[in-house]
Amino acid sequence: MSAPPRVLTVAGSDSGGGAGIQADLKTMLALGVHGMSVLTAVTAQNSLGVQGAWELPVEAVRAQYRSVVDDIGVQAVKTGMLASAELVEAVADLLAGTDAPAVVDPVGVSKHGDALLAASALDSVRTKLLPVALVATPNLDEVGQLTGVRVGSERDMRRAAAAMLEFGPRWVVIKGGHLSGDAVDLLTDGSEEHWLRAPRHDNRHTHGTGCTLASAIASYLAKGHTVPEAVTAAKTYVTGALTSGFALGGGIGPVHHGWALRGDDAG
């Protein structure tokens, strides 16, 4: 039996299982690829927020990456929480030497507003990490952090995308989930645009959406889809996961990564 496409996530651990490495690997399993991981940080995290975070040494991150890529190989790489400028630059160097598409989720804050990236690392994200990305997937808060562009409406999303593309990713997905109305995302490479819309569901259990979307894009890219195809399919998968999000603990619950695998209401 041949091995499925292989996707590597380089991200932090969410002990509550809703985001981070855990969300990435669940997404990859649900979409039929083999998920592998490079752990960059450990968080103490639950439905109420992040109670603590500890980044791993650069040499530990580099050793994990080389161990997987040099032996098993990858068809796509996804990055999430990188925490510090040193880790951002180390991972950017690794990606630059890897012949596989990179999906960069420039994680800045958690769903609860907890900082997951040092302010001193923002310039490294702009100048080192984004230039090696095939696709970058910032939310509106991350767009503001990185570009200074504040998005208050759909009209602002084009301006935000143009500002992100100046940092070098070939494509950018501006995630408009924080706007009112339909959940709309803009995918563009500066010449072609794809507006991806989905109805907004009345479900506050949305923890892990950003990690899940980026991992789904990477999974579809690894399976041979074009960027527009991969992002469109990922949006459909995330919409289903959001619709099926469930309560967990006393705060914001996670999206349901296995929604499409259920036999009852998977459709």
Please give a structural write-up.
By secondary structure, this protein is α/β, with parallel strands linked by helices. It is built from eight helices and nine strands. It has a nine-stranded mixed beta sheet, sandwiched between helices. Helix 1 crosses helix 7. The longest helix is centred in the C-terminal third of the chain and has 17 residues, at 227-243. The radius of gyration is 17 Å and the shape is globular. The two termini are 29 Å apart. The model has no long low-confidence stretch (mean pLDDT 92).
Describe how the helices and strands are arranged.
Elements: E1 6-14, H1 20-30, E2 34-46, E3 49-55, H2 58-71, E4 76-79, H3 85-96, E5 102-104, H4 122-129, E6 135-136, H5 140-147, H6 154-165, E7 171-175, E8 183-188, E9 193-198, H7 209-222, H8 227-243
Parallel strand pairs: 1-2, 1-4, 4-5, 5-6, 6-7
Antiparallel strand pairs: 2-3, 7-8, 8-9
